[in-house]
Amino acid sequence: MNSASTDPFVPCRRVGDGSWHHFFGYYNKSNWDKGNRLLLAQRTPWMDQYLTPEVKATVGYFDTGDGDRFHAVGETGAWNWQMGSQLQWLDGAPGRQLVYNDRTGDIKARYPGFGAVVVDVDSGARRQLPMPVYVVAPSSAWALSVNYRRLYATHETIGYSEPGQPFELPLAPADDGIWRMDMASGDAALLVSYAQLKAFHHRPSMDKAIHWVSHIEVNPSSSRILFLHRWTERVKDETCFLHRLITMNPDGSGMRLLECSDHPLPQLAEDFDPGAVGTFDYEKSEYQISHPLWQDDGHIIVWGPHAGEIHYHLYHDAEGGAVEVVGRGVLVENGHMTFSPVDKRWMLSDTYPDDRTHERFLFLFDMHTGERRNLGSFYATPELSKENRCDLHPRWSRDGRLVCIDSVHEHQRQMHVLDVSSIVG
């Protein structure tokens, strides 16, 4: 860890020998397999690289039971620094299977050239799916898919580039949105379109805006979906993004609006300079709704505004469901939060870099006592931009005793494992 850190933090080790750069990506799923031994990762020769369709990352896993030996299973051109290739284990499938996005070259696909690859790490068997995945349901029976070309235009950090961009995109099309793809057959159905989202509890600020979705998550029993609906008239300025938290059934029915942060946007004035917006200003906005995740089948943790205040909030997914503040006065800024898979008492999260020191904290929050326990302080290289930054994105091991993060505090993009067993017991 950075030498400026003085707290008695928990044990932390780098994964691998550091001869390549490695990262997993997002915080919303574990990169440990069901046996708690194999650790998914993307490998690259660079810490920082502008991503074009030709830039490839190696997909594979570390075997922590064999000296962190890295096993490559493929290569992908469909990835970004924030989410990787949406690499994830198929927890509900037999054996040890994983899936990741790739540029398949299938020009007849729903999103031409993009799909996903399923790999059985034990047999080596591979098969291709006709759509890229965003998240796979815990049952592994189906996945949700979106248009990564659209995401690249609306929120470059989480999209995939294509030759010939920028493209003109319809603002709220009726033939695109969130798709549900069967993981066995590849058959897909459109669950909700952007036109439907625009019409659902319509706001005037939506009329001239382009629409997209992000942070799509499936609850543990695969019976309910959450997502953020976002829209803006100025895609290059994230402080102009407007947000809603919505849930629905796996067939697209039962759509429910839990929160909306629509508000006036002085940034849309002609003389406003988007270049004056700092790298993390968007993440620190008082109107931001971000990083929602299921605590269990009926509750959602999220950073966002409610009743005129912005906090970590816990929502009950029901019409008129209760909303409660988590960590008032203790959890005072945006982070990537998840609950221990074995004990919901423990919430894992992080902070964004301090504007002055560029340090960010990884911590556990005790839902019983309201106490925050810092696990480490990590330096974030300020030269990295929005698109190629390295957030900690903390992830739990399956037994809830270890935490994995991505970090650049050693001037390499690497994964690190921290032992939290002394705290969680």
From TrEMBL:
<protein>
    <recommendedName>
        <fullName>Oligogalacturonide lyase</fullName>
    </recommendedName>
</protein>
<dbReference type="InterPro" id="IPR015943">
    <property type="entry name" value="WD40/YVTN_repeat-like_dom_sf"/>
</dbReference>
